[in-house]
Design a protein that fits this description.
Blueprint: E1 6-16, E2 19-29, E3 34-38, H1 45-52, E4 60-65, E5 68-69, H2 75-80, E6 82-85, H3 97-101, H4 103-107, H5 112-125, H6 130-133, H7 143-155, E7 161-165, H8 173-190, E8 193-198, H9 201-207, E9 210-215, E10 218-223, H10 225-230, H11 235-241
Parallel strand pairs: 3-8, 3-9, 6-7, 7-8
Antiparallel strand pairs: 1-2, 1-4, 4-5, 9-10
Helix pairs in contact: 5-7
Length: 246
């Protein structure tokens, strides 16, 4: 059996005594697979994501990335080898689009020519050709364009794993749907493992290979979008999916 890209083994995490955010949380994300963590606010989705790149550490259990316990890894090196896309893109406002995309390659010591070629390649992929957009500042972009740059930046060092925390949540509905459709095209050619946090049922069912429905820090059901739609495991899953599962 192949080594999963990410594996949570009976993980628990609390922020205060008696207030568990994750409890007995277990899940596998295979290499090249997109898994959506779907659930209501406060259920532990983002906490699980932060455990993967050591923004947080578990109190018990194990979090493994390609078979290695993340607690044995240098946190900075781990983050530089993991793509990270957040809701507001997180671009450096005083840097150009090109400089933002080059962030991690610069930290990894890539030479200027290699950085620029990689930035140009990715900006073309996300529909913002470097010749036209590379010298602009984030304030000169729309929300959807900033999010595209955020995706390009996360992919710049070609990490095998991409973590996405509500990546399209701050966009208007039209821009959101457009980027969701484009993401489907991007991921087919990239072949990366993706762990996607969302509370949007339609987004999870559209973008993922499998969905993990979470409630109260535990996985209530894992399955393909079709399995989740047709055979919800319990009343909570059925109620949370609601009409969006139809």
């Amino acid at each position: 059996m192949s080594v999963p890209a990410v594996e949570f083994r009976d993980v628990s995490k609390s922020y205060a005594p008696g207030r568990s955010v994750l409890a007995g949380f277990s899940l596998r994300v295979e290499a090249g697979e997109t898994v959506a963590l779907l659930g209501p606010s406060g259920c532990g989705k983002t906490t699980a994501l932060k455990l993967v790149n050591r923004l947080l550490d578990p109190e018990s259990g194990e979090v493994l990335v390609f078979g290695r316990d993340v607690r044995s890894e240098d946190a900075i090196a781990l983050r530089r080898q993991t793509g990270w896309v957040i809701q507001e893109s997180g671009l450096f406002p005083h840097w150009t689009v090109r400089q933002n995309v080059e962030t991690v390659p610069r930290l990894l010591g890539w030479d200027a020519r290699r950085r620029r070629e990689r930035a140009a390649e990715l900006l073309t992929m996300v529909g913002l050709p470097e010749a036209e957009w590379g010298d602009r500042r984030p304030r000169q972009l729309s929300g959807g364009q900033r999010q595209r740059v955020g995706v390009a930046r996360a992919l710049a060092a070609d990490p095998p794993l991409l973590l996405m925390d509500e990546p399209f949540g701050a966009l208007d509905p039209i821009a959101r749907r457009a980027l969701q459709r484009e993401f489907l095209g991007w991921k087919k050619g990239l072949g990366k493992a993706v762990l996607l946090v969302t509370h949007d049922v339609r987004e999870a069912l559209l973008l993922s290979d499998r969905v993990a429905v979470i409630e109260g820090g535990r996985v209530r059901q894992v399955g393909t979008p079709e399995e989740i739609r047709r055979r919800p495991a319990d009343g909570f899953v059925r109620a949370f999916l609601g009409e969006d599962a139809s």
